Amino acid sequence: MKRSHNDHAGLIAPASAAAELQVWEALNLALNEAMAVDDAVFVLGEDVGVYGGSYRVTQGLYARYGEWRVRDTPISEGSFTGLGVGAALVGGRPVVEIMTVNFALLALDAIVNMAAKLRYMSGGQLRVPLVVRMPGGVAHQLAAQHSQRLEHMLMNVPGLRIVAPGTPQDSYWQLRQAIRHDDPVIVLEHELLYFDKGTFDHAAGAPPLHAAAVRRPGRDLTLIAWHRMVQVAQQAAERLAGEGIEAEVIDLRSLRPIDLPLLRESLGRTHRALVVEEDCRFAGAGAEIVAALTEAAFFDLDAPLRRVAAADVPTPYNGELERASIPDVDAVIEAARGILPA
Amino acid sequence: MNVADKKRLLREMLFARRFEERCYEAYVERKIGGFLHLYPGEEACALGVLEAARPGQDYVITGYRDHVHAIKCGTDPKKIMAELYGKETGCSRGRGGSMHIFDVEHHFMGGYALVGGPFPLAAGMAKALKMQGSDDIAICFLGDAANNQGTFHETMNMAALWQLPVLFVCENNLYGIGTRIDRSTAVVDQYKRVAAYNIPSAQEDGQDIEKVYKAAKKAVDHVRSGKGPYFLELMTYRYRGHSMSDSNAYRSKDEERMWSNRDPIIMLRDRLIEAGELTKDDFKAMDTEILDEIEDEIIAFAESSPEPRVEDLEKYVFAENDPWVYGGGR
Hints:
The structure holds two protein chains of two kinds.
Chain A: E1 19-22, H1 23-37, E2 41-45, H2 61-65, E3 70-72, H3 77-89, E4 93-97, H4 101-104, H5 108-115, H6 118-121, E5 131-136, H7 151-155, E6 161-163, H8 168-180, E7 185-190, E8 197-200, E9 213-216, E10 221-225, H9 228-241, E11 247-251, E12 254-256, H10 260-270, E13 273-280, H11 285-297, E14 306-310, H12 319-325, H13 329-339
Parallel strand pairs in A: 2-3, 2-4, 4-5, 5-7, 6-7, 10-11, 10-13, 13-14
Antiparallel strand pairs in A: 1-8, 6-12, 9-11
Helix pairs in contact in A: 1-8, 3-5, 9-13, 10-11
Chain B: H1 3-28, H2 43-51, E1 59-62, H3 67-73, H4 77-84, E2 108-111, H5 118-131, E3 138-143, H6 150-161, E4 166-172, E5 175-176, E6 179-180, H7 181-184, H8 190-193, E7 201-205, H9 209-224, E8 230-235, H10 253-260, H11 264-274, H12 280-304, H13 323-326
Parallel strand pairs in B: 1-2, 1-3, 3-4, 4-8, 7-8
Antiparallel strand pairs in B: 5-6
């Protein structure tokens, strides 16, 4: 057999102690380790094999595990995702990679009509241990059909679990946990985070799959974000700290379910909160978070809950228009001032 | 196929017919709700094909006209009727209904309500089975109209490319709800369409169960021997409308009469009578026995079974919590 340009050297070696890894490397390590311990785990998607994955996440796996476990598919998102569902029904643990969330719209029948509903419709007989990984978010001038954030569409589907890791540590563990899970789990990745570096500590283990994490403690207001917006919120928090305002930054990590207990606990201390989301404002994830917190914690609030969200426009190609369409640090600070005491 | 097998298949077809007719009555009595798609006229397809496979062991998937396929796989008809009644004792605990019969124990992997949806699921099952080194195969039954979905072409391509052990059975009853096949489909002979993907195929008379069995045996042997997918088209006809809400006004009386003259049950019955293997009285006794069983056991079970508890509304959405996933740790 012809040897591909990816070989064992392309795989990320597990570190014995805490190390620096990029997000794509952490995902690669998670896939490699999950495949090594369980023959039922296999990967399928466009260009995941010989090519090595469009964001390098599956690099080296084809050479190590072969074409049956690292399956390059034709460009048929609807059916190769459905193929993953079918394999999951009979003992497989497929990890489907959809090249971008935009293409996942073609796979909604498999995800929404099939994967999400089969356990319930069968009265608990079927399990669907399917993982669907998909990168999304606004990258650099990819225009409207390659820049969507579709979390809101999938969040409304009972039967799906949705996680959104943004660090190497979370990317590794949440993918490992998703693969181990007997329910369908959507792993939303962000195109601009793949080459971010961060500490990876294998020995540190993992918090629960759906737990949120406090990235920066604070007493004056809570910034709720996920994916790249966590970084935007952290930068805003640093600038606010220069003015003596201490913002707590929470990385949601999971969008279904949402860790409401942690959010309530934070609000109980800060009494003010902003949701910072890269997705469009109308009927987005932030709308759900604000509604749920209003129902649960209205009497803890000293100010209305607010959202900093993307403009309700198809993402434009032009760089300046693109930047203006999604929240930045200034927008977060301005919104924060609007809910802080004068 | 010996005489005993033929008599058993005759009984199975008659049972399927009477079961479905009783569903019709229960629907009219409003005991069954939702959508109900019945199988009379098509019995030889599911029963003949699965007779040639390993029902209960091979993995079977189909659309929403799914009761008879499940019965042949080994699902207790009492549990199917209870499912149609929406009862907790139903095979899907009353959560699925007529279109969503599931019986994992007997490898009946379900009835699905999205036309063409099961194609990729069948290929996925076949891929997993092949990876596990099993010689079980996946069998996907769908109607002719499903072949106009994108999933048909996408799945045929992948099944052929990877030589997956999957048998596609096209129950061609000539209509997609009310639209006749030649008004919806450029190539009317369905078995010809998979030639584009180098998948071997055949077309057979779906009303003659002996012919169906023979064609299916060849198809099943092909798939099980590792030669990749196969596509079998069976020409058949449904006597009733697409579902119970169908006025059935789009077909001519002449056409309906032509097909009822080729009834799969009558054809096999008369053949056995001519051969001196069965009498008209034997057949009548068989029929009476079946009708009694349906009434005294199946309907009685469905009627007397409990409804699901409202407290259990949210059960079965998710798996029970896995401590590894929920409690942290590795």
